[in-house]
Design a protein that fits this description.
The chain is an alpha+beta fold. It is built from nine helices and four strands. It has two domains: 90 residues, Glutaredoxin (3-Layer(aba) Sandwich); 109 residues, Glutathione S-transferase Yfyf (Class Pi), Chain A, domain 2 (Up-down Bundle), CATH 1.20.1050.10. Bound molecules: glutathione (GSH).
Amino acid sequence: MITLYGVYRSRASRPLWLLGEIGCDFTHVPVIQAYRLKDAKAEDAVLNTASPDYLAVNPQGQIPAMEDDGLLLTESLAITLHIARRHGGGFGPADGSEQSLMEQWALYAATSLEPPALEILLAVESGGDTLPETRAAIRVSAEKLRRPLNRLERHLSGHDWLVGNRFTAADINTAECLRYAQGYPALLAEYPHVSDWLARCQARPAFQTFWARREAEPA
Ligand SMILES: N[C@@H](CCC(=O)N[C@@H](CS)C(=O)NCC(=O)O)C(=O)O
């Protein structure tokens, strides 16, 4: 049985979305980021990333973490790949080549997409187009995304999905990293195949359910 640690408003989104797609039973422990507990001493508040009980699970003090039949993993994209491979049926790899492709897209998402996309999210949240400095920061981060987005656009101009002509964990990992850049729609509008693919991913009932639960959590 899988135990997944981490609230919906975190990178736990990736395995939580996949678990919703698969529909398998799991235990969800909604550990929250310590820095979000504004008025309490983090160690004493609800289970959070600074709680001794959680540090015993993940000494790095970050979410998500996952336990599955004695295996502990503490990286969201690796967790999603593991769940897909062991429990995911068609959401996981059909063979070794698909496994390699899913790993490739996860590493692409982590190294080429997530850092600049996260910069965009933070700049949008702290002012966006209203402040000259955040507007300039968004432009710089968007520029860093253009080469990886060109590569994704090229792939999606010939395929509906990233691996195996079906929706898989590779789409979840990549779409969730790219979601951080959606606060700057002008960039994604330059990549019509990427935009259509992201819309297809986010139209899925399991994403919609995940999103409703995320929105129900305190911001
Ligand atoms: N590379 C890690 C990053 C994990 C991470 O940064 N998690 C954030 C929440 S999305 C966190 O736990 N922040 C609390 C902290 O760093 O204190 C992953 O993808 O799992």
